[in-house]
Amino acid sequence: MDMTLLRRFGVLAALALLLSACNGGDGDQSARDASPTPAATQTAAPQAIPTATPSVEQQVSEAYLHYWDIYADAVFNLDDSRLPEVMTAPDLERARQEVEALRQRGRAAKIVVEHNFVILQLDQVAGSATIRDEYTNKSYEVDAQTEEMVGKAPQGNVLTDTYFLVKEGGTWKVRDGIRENG
Amino acid sequence: MEGSRRYSGKWIARATQLALFLLAGVALSIAHPALADDGDYNPRPNLPDASVSVDSGPDGVTIYIAVSDTSPGSSDDSSSGTTDDSGGWSCTANVMSIGNATRDWFEREAPLHPGEAPWVVNCDNGFMSIVWLPVDAEPADVRIVVVPGVDPASMAADLRDHVPVPDVTVGVNPATGLVAMPSWFWIEGYDGSAIRTSDTLGDTTVEVEIRPTGYRWSFGDGAALETDSLGEAYPDESDIRHTYQQSSLADGGAFRVTVRITFSVRYRVDDGPWEPLDPITRSFSAAYRVQQLQSILTGQ
């Protein structure tokens, strides 16, 4: 790997850990540093953003994966009743529409994904987190009645989604998302 | 000798029956609209779109963010932010810090981007993304351009994914196949010509063209054929043919014959130069019954 790159990130990582330690490791400062900057379309000097404690990151990661489990069950069983456990408006409504659209076509979806995500932002105090997932997708449609695959086995593609999570009633939920096109 | 003649007579009768079968066989066109696509499924298909691209040049690096009107924050937050040309999207880019939460990810991704470093794009409406920029890029050299409302590349991709491919059907003769006898196949309902579609948003018109580049036939018994031909409809002699070696009885009564069409894709904006897009494929299937004829020897 490029030594310049290593040096650059070695310094940044060390700085991040130092700042994190100074901050008590609670990650609050992280959110403040990563909060919106009013300057329009300007770049800023590189800055180290301390990360939250592993336990909070773990919570967010687990919540995110749980969201996928519940979502996968919903589109496979065409049952959106558990979606509110892991999603909130406006994304909740989108997912419900997705289930309904499948139902109307007599199809369901088998979700097969391999995640590759990173937590971009985490603010414990505000209860917000941003996850970017560049995942391999091999999901496919099935007949809603027979649950048999429709068409051929998918070859797989890579999708890049960013999800915005909020902590609602003590539970991290997906509030919104956006898909990056290549 | 007499017995032999009787056998020959039966054989001739069966051959005649077979010939009639073939000659009288009307092209079987079996539409399977349920298989109008491959069945691939993209999770969360109704998420808002955005695209982030990087243009590195001698004058520095430009990060383009193209967003749709429904992108998170683009409606609610724009009024409270700046009112510049970016429609309220106010974004910054910073070298990404590698901490506990990102170390594993960085170690996975860095080898895929030699000579580049990850930067986080952070917009004041909550949108965030990661771009990989040259490792020697300096903040002063990095510019961000937000293009709200219209994203030609996204429009093109969306058009491509919804391009009206004709309702292709699989033609086959004879209507019921026979073991050891060649069956002829062809594509009906589509002549292989380029298909264009377009959409206009605001002052921007995006045109997408798809053109077939190949056809892959799977005959359901494990055999396959790659061709650039549509085949010929019966009674013409099709160059797409397959001889089954066994009946379809053990395959649920019918083989699933599938033709997978690969289309090259290109698009242009406002009659500008054509730009390539990733190809697409569409599959069409038909159930095809194949029987085993059995000769019956009689003692008469």
Structure description:
The complex is a heterodimer of chains A (182) and B (300). Chain A is an alpha+beta fold and 182 residues long. Chain A is built from four helices and seven strands. Chain A has a domain at 55-180: Nuclear Transport Factor 2, Chain: A (Roll), CATH 3.10.450. Chain B has two domains: 2-11 and 20-42 and 158-291, Immunoglobulin-like (Sandwich); 50-150, no CATH class. Helix content of chain B is 13%, strand content 40%. In chain B, strand 12 (204-218) and strand 13 (224-227) form a beta hairpin. The longest helix of chain B has 23 residues, at 2-24. In chain B, 37% of the residues are buried. The model of chain B is unreliable at 1-37 and 70-86 (pLDDT under 50).
Query: Which sequence of SSEs, written as H and E, runs from N to C of chain A?
Result: HHHHEEEEEEE
Describe the biggest sheet of chain B? 5 strands, antiparallel
The fraction of residues assigned to DSSP E strands of chain A is 25-35%
Mean pLDDT of chain B: 78
User: What Rg of chain B, in angstroms, do the CA atoms define?
Assistant: 29 Å
Work out the helicity level of chain A.
Answer: 25-40%
Please tell me what the overall shape of chain B is. Answer: elongated
Order of helices and strands of chain B: HEEEEHEEEHEEEEEEEEEE
Supply the helix-strand structural class of chain A. alpha+beta
- The number of helices of chain A is 4
Give the CATH level 1 class of the domain at 55-180 in chain A. Alpha Beta
Q: Provide the gyration radius of chain A in Å.
A: 19 Å
> Would you identify the CATH architecture of the domain at 55-180 in chain A?
Roll
Overall morphology of chain A:
globular
CATH C-level name of the largest domain in chain B: Mainly Beta
Amount of beta strand of chain B: 35-45%
CATH fold topology of the largest domain in chain B: Immunoglobulin-like
Name of the CATH superfamily of the largest domain in chain B: Immunoglobulins
